[in-house]
Amino acid sequence: MISSVREKIMEKVLVVGAGMTGASIAAFLRQELPKSTKISIWEKSNGIGGRMSTSRASNIRNSTVDLGAQYISASPLYQQKHSGIYSELIQAGLLMAIDVASIEGHSDKQPDTKHYVVPEGISALVKHFVNKADASVGRQHLVTSITTEGTHVAVTTEQGIKELFDAVVLTMPVPQIFQLKGDIAKFIGEKGIKADLQNVSYSSRFAVGLFFPPGTCLDVPWSAKYIYDNPCVRYVSVDNRKRNKDSADVGPSVCIHTSVPWSMENLEKDKDSAAQEILEHVKAVLPWLPKPSEVKGHKWRYSQVDKGFPGSPGCVILSDSPPVLLAGDAFSRGVFDGCLDSALATQQLLVGLHKSKV
Ligand code: FAD
Fold this sequence. Notes:
- The protein is 30% helix and 27% strand.
- By secondary structure, the protein is an alpha/beta fold.
- It has helices spanning 2-9, 20-32, 76-81, 83-91, 123-133, 174-177, 184-191, 194-198, 239-242, 260-265, 271-285, 336-355; strands spanning 12-16, 38-42, 54-56, 64-66, 72-74, 96-97, 103-104, 114-117, 136-138, 143-149, 152-157, 162-165, 167-170, 181-182, 201-202, 205-211, 224-226, 233-238, 253-258, 294-300, 305-307, 315-319, 324-327.
- It is globular, with a radius of gyration of 21 Å.
- Flavin-adenine dinucleotide is lined by residues 16-22, 42-45, 50-52, 68-72, 141-143, 171-173, 176, 205, 207, 257, 300, 303-304, 328-329, 334-336, 338-339.
């Protein structure tokens, strides 16, 4: 009985955003919903990963660098809570445990935290969940408007696509929710959560990826290093070494993250001119570094969650019927396990909403 009702109500579900939260929501919904349910993921950019992004060199085949999230760090609580997910990812070769002694200047907030890297690049983790979801992925689908039309949610993109869904989950960083047109402002007003959403804040950072030709040797005793005596550069990794990938045929890659104060001061600079300034600071920090063959700059305006949504509920209902939900790391914790928490809460809520209609 329940499954037949769910089948009728949940024919089409849309997840907006192909980051870690969106991908895991889609995968967890797939476990609960009938095979016939069409799960779509619409993503504004061309790539999958969001803030767990891996960038490719344009001129060196197979050379990649993680520009956003670097490590998956599981506290004892989450090693237990998400043990099934961790086992699956480790067995699939997606996560590899590392010894943090190779990260200079690292200190754990919680003892017995386990650290992992993603050898194929952090976005491989997000792609894994997208594949599990068997979802249709719409790239370059920048959602601009959400309205309700009877029992459906009408979603429109900047590219002029309009489609009706039975349920929609939005996973973009919170300030980007306010950019949406249609009924979103009305929903937020009705739920009385405008101030709570406006109070959510993120730090900002610039990232620079450097690619070096095959044969380049970067002879340092660390895989990554936190830097505390430069105003601009906060973190450097020899990214392939961090991921335990041999660079003999591919060439090494380096990731640089800027400090939050420098990033805030320079936030309105474009990513390429900021990258040139960051490289001047890199010369002071790593004077031995050879000239890279390619430089890729990136601006994370919304980087890590500074202040999350009150109570960390995992997700929030904007509209009960038809369902429109908000999810993402700001509704839980700004790390991998927070995304999984948000996705599990969304799965439970969405499936629960429909069971209650039986
Ligand atoms: P996002 O990854 O932001 O995904 C949201 C997606 O929505 C994006 O792909 C975006 O393009 C898309 N989108 C936005 N607006 C629209 C629209 N209108 N239409 C369609 N699509 C849209 N976490 C860790 O666990 N370990 C770390 O070491 C770590 N380090 C970090 C370092 C940096 C520099 C950054 C930036 C983050 C780091 N994090 C780390 C945090 C981690 O990356 C995030 O918690 C996680 O990626 C958030 O995933 P999400 O899916 O909630 O959001």
